[in-house]
Amino acid sequence: MRIRTSGFTLIELLVAVAVLGVMSAVAAPSFMSYRHNAELGAAANDFLSALAAAKSESVVNSTHALVVPADGANWSSGWIAFADKNYNGTFDAGDRKLLSGPAFPAYLAISGTGTAGGTAPYVLFDALGYSRDAAGGFASSTIQIARNDIGTAPSYTAMRRVKANYSGRIRSCKPAADPDPDCDSSGL
């Protein structure tokens, strides 16, 4: 009579470990790509939330609301969304902070165009929710978030843009081609 034993043999264990190793090696690049896209999406969504909060605040309370870099000059330092009670364009004691974001990691490069670019970048919404410049004219702004640690990928695959147009419409987009400054061919 044979006695039945349960468990794994050494050969079965080694085969299972080898299969697990091969599967991990195949899945790792996909996971890294997923993680990079998730980090870009999270940063873009943070900016999108800040702009939406500022626009909403400006309309609800009939005041100016802004999103500005935390240090006043560089979006990579983080940002502050606030209701500008005294209409001076800077965050001071009398203003109400709506949202703020921390500094971005060094592998994310943040830049802006329109009023979101230059030496003192900002995005301003008036009491009607329109995007304006400091002189009161209509303005559009784009904040671009790009990874600078991916050397082999085309630049447009590693970036997101957050746009506020003249009417105050806010959107996030992923350029579908390299020469696509307006994200017109975006799938997002």
From TrEMBL:
- This protein's UniProt keywords: Cell inner membrane, Cell membrane, Membrane, Methylation, Transmembrane, Transmembrane helix
* GO BP, sorted A to Z: protein secretion by the type II secretion system
Q: Indicate where this protein is primarily found.
A: membrane
Identify the InterPro entries for this entry.
N_methyl_site, Pilin-like, T2SS_GspH
- Classification via Pfam families: GspH (PF12019), N_methyl (PF07963)
Instruction: Kindly state one GO CC term assigned in the UniProt record.
Output: type II protein secretion system complex
| Domain named General secretion pathway GspH: residues | 43-155
**What domain of life does the native source organism fall in?**
Bacteria
PROSITE patterns in UniProt = PROKAR_NTER_METHYL
Record's bilayer topology term: Single-pass membrane protein
- Compartments (UniProt record): Cell inner membrane
Entry similarity comment: Belongs to the GSP H family.
Q: What is this protein called?
A: Type II secretion system protein H
